[in-house]
Design goal:
Aspartate Aminotransferase, domain 1, Aspartate Aminotransferase, domain 2, 7-stranded mixed sheet, 13 helices, binds pyridoxal-5'-phosphate
């Protein structure tokens, strides 16, 4: 495949793009919601065009060839062996989390979640009439000039478990902190959940966006393969290949009883996956990997630019983003009342950390052209230097 031009600036205004419409005609650079400013792989677009030669877009079920493509993908990329029958397709990971919450025990039962975290995981338990129990991740400061990292506080986790605990919502790799849990952490977590009969809903949507050169994503169900019935894994090509608007996501549910309950709860409440989303997903898993490998290189380049600028700007700091294209920037030392608002006034639209449960941070989406990234960073740095 020839070189993909990730420097290309694509004007998304007037296309209904959520990210851009938020700020209308203003010149704010939107660096919030997690989609990318890059055109998806040409191979995916070709597949969709071909599918349109058959001009009926009726109700569609996941083709067997797609399930096989996912089985191959999971084996080759994540060392995960599945039976295609374990797959339940849904039009998004968030609806899948909603269904999982709904099927967890009775109203008022408890759903555990590590905080901070991607905000729908905070919002969905109460929406589904379950009690959310927050377990803060613990921040370990780095030594010898090394960055710090967020880790699971196992004592706090075990203390938070009660007879009413039914589900743990896990985000791995982690949005917004951008770190990857270790195999040991995931194994230990699964063992505890198995003992206490808590189902782990493992949202692994960012699993193919590993930027750390020496790390590999560990799927929760692989970290504790013998206990995999305890886990519902949620994945999707939508972040990896920038297909959020053509979403076909899947749940991997090895346990037949959990799978049936989940599939029954989806029926007539969650819309079926659109035909072209299935097409895009199959094209992505079969033919998108060369594009993806160039994407990762480009994102790594963006990450080093952002780390350098952030860490040399007074009042800001960030740790390594091991995975995702989201920088979790600590702004708590800035001498301003509301850092999100201050940076918005400087012309950069970030995601406020408070949304994810930590007001001391802002989240910046760096999946954009280098030019746009530099422009955003200049605005941030320039505004702070004037303080
Ligand atoms: C951790 C995580 N889960 C789920 C989603 C959204 O998934 P979907 O669009 O498939 O509902 C996102 C999007 O940013 C995310 O970061």
């Amino acid at each position: 495949m020839s070189k993909i031009d990730f420097d290309k600036i694509v004007d998304r205004r007037g296309t209904g793009a959520l990210k851009w419409d938020k700020y209308g005609d203003s010149d704010v650079i939107p660096m919030w919601v997690a989609d990318m400013e890059f055109e998806t792989s040409p191979a995916i677009i070709d597949f969709i065009r071909q599918r349109l030669d058959h001009a009926i877009l009726g109700y569609t079920k996941a083709p067997a060839s797609l399930n096989t493509a996912v089985q191959t993908y999971l084996r080759e990329h994540h060392g995960c062996t599945i039976d295609p029958d374990w797959l339940v397709w849904v039009p998004g990971v968030v609806p899948a989390v909603a269904v999982a919450c709904e099927t967890a025990g009775e109203p008022d039962d408890e759903i555990l979640v590590f905080t901070p975290v991607y905000h729908p995981l905070l919002l969905l338990p109460p929406k589904k009439h379950r009690n959310r129990v927050d377990v803060p991740l613990s921040y370990e400061k780095g030594s010898n000039g090394e960055g710090g990292r967020w880790v699971i506080d196992f004592d706090a986790f075990e203390k938070a478990i009660t007879k009413k605990s039914r589900i743990l919502l896990l985000c791995s790799p982690h949005n917004p902190a951008g770190m990857m849990f270790s195999r040991e952490e995931l194994r230990r977590l699964t063992e505890i959940c198995h003992t206490r009969n808590i189902t782990i809903i493992s949202d692994e949507i960012h699993c193919d966006l590993v930027l750390h050169p020496a790390k590999k994503h560990v799927t929760t169900s692989v970290a504790a393969e013998d206990l995999q019935n305890q886990v519902i894994t949620l994945m999707s090509p939508s972040k990896t290949f920038n297909l959020a608007g053509a979403n076909a996501s899947f749940a991997v549910i090895p346990d037949p009883e959990r799978r049936q309950r989940f599939a029954d709860a989806c029926l007539y409440t969650v819309p079926i996956v659109p035909t072209l989303s299935y097409t895009a997903a199959e094209a992505a898993y079969r033919s998108g990997w060369e594009w993806h490998s160039q994407l990762i290189d480009y994102l790594r380049g963006n990450l080093s630019v952002i780390k350098q600028t952030v860490n040399e700007t007074p009042g800001l700091w960030m740790d390594d983003t091991e995975a995702t294209y989201l920088a979790w920037i600590n702004t708590s030392e800035l001498p301003v009342q509301d850092a999100f608002d201050f940076l918005l006034k400087a012309g950069v639209g970030l995601s406020p950390g408070a949304q994810f449960g930590d007001p001391g941070y802002q989240r910046l989406n760096f999946a954009c052209s280098r030019t746009q990234l530099l422009q955003g960073l200049e605005r941030i740095k320039g505004a702070i230097e004037k303080l």
